[in-house]
Design goal:
This protein has helices spanning 33-42, 79-84, 135-149, 162-166, 226-229; strands at 29-30, 45-52, 55-62, 64-66, 69-75, 95-109, 117-131, 168-174, 177-183, 201-204. The chain has 231 residues and is α+β, with helices and mostly antiparallel strands.
């Protein structure tokens, strides 16, 4: 994995750019594809940032990854999806965006308030979100969005019908300008604070799943799918 300032890039890494090199804690940056993909695949919600009417806007939304592409979807009437479909002079439709995904792995408690922190894993993607119009790609993208939340669910549910598809817009964001940033380990207390009587360390944070709760109108005897009991 290359250092953030390297000018050469390994085949299994994304090339650093001015927008993906952090200004602080550069040693925490990673451009490794497997690391980036793992962080993306573990998340559920991304935050999609763009400029609307001259002001920054950030929206939380579901996403799905297929290879080196991310997909998001929404109503055809939603403003960001309509903006992405506009054609500018001599340019293809698209919306400049910044997409982020973050996991919190621990609360880092230092002896001083200043050095409190989080252990985290995050990914930032810059690029142009473009509308997906090819029917086959749209179908694959919508399946990926469902399976991203619960793998195997797309094949175990009714696909969208023509009316639902007409009301749904899908955007594609290629993974070209990408970086991950990761913090691990304990607090970074100042030497002069080590003798203070305050507890210092890490409180781990982990995601857990409860038992599946059937819908009130579920037919009696309907078995719980194996992909839920294995989670």
């Amino acid at each position: 994995m290359p250092a953030p300032h390297d000018t050469t890039t390994a085949p299994d890494a994304y090339a650093p750019t001015d927008r993906t090199v952090p200004t602080r804690a550069r040693e925490r940056a990673s451009y490794d594809r497997e690391v980036v993909h793992a962080i993306l695949d573990e998340g559920y919600v991304c935050h999609l940032g763009f400029i609307r009417d001259g002001a920054p806007v950030v929206l939380p939304t579901l996403y799905g990854r297929v290879g080196e592409r991310l997909y998001v979807h929404g109503s055809t009437g939603a403003r960001p999806l309509r903006m992405a479909g506009r054609e500018e002079a001599d340019e293809a439709p698209g919306l400049p965006v910044c997409l982020t995904v973050t996991h919190v792995d621990g609360l880092v408690l230092a002896r001083s308030a200043f050095h409190h922190s989080l252990n985290y894993r995050s990914v930032v993607v810059h690029g142009i979100a473009r509308p997906v119009t090819d029917p086959a790609e749209r179908a694959a993208a919508l399946d990926a969005l469902v399976d991203h939340v619960v793998p195997g669910r797309a094949a175990d549910s009714r696909p969208a019908d023509a009316k639902e598809l007409a009301a749904t817009a899908v955007l594609r964001l290629d993974l070209d300008e990408v970086s991950a940033k990761i913090r691990t380990g304990g607090p970074n207390d100042d030497p002069e604070d080590l003798a203070l009587p305050h507890w210092s360390g890490v409180l781990p944070v982990a995601r857990t799943y409860g038992a599946p709760v059937p819908a009130d109108d579920l037919a009696p005897g309907t078995p719980v799918p194996g992909y839920l009991t294995r989670r």
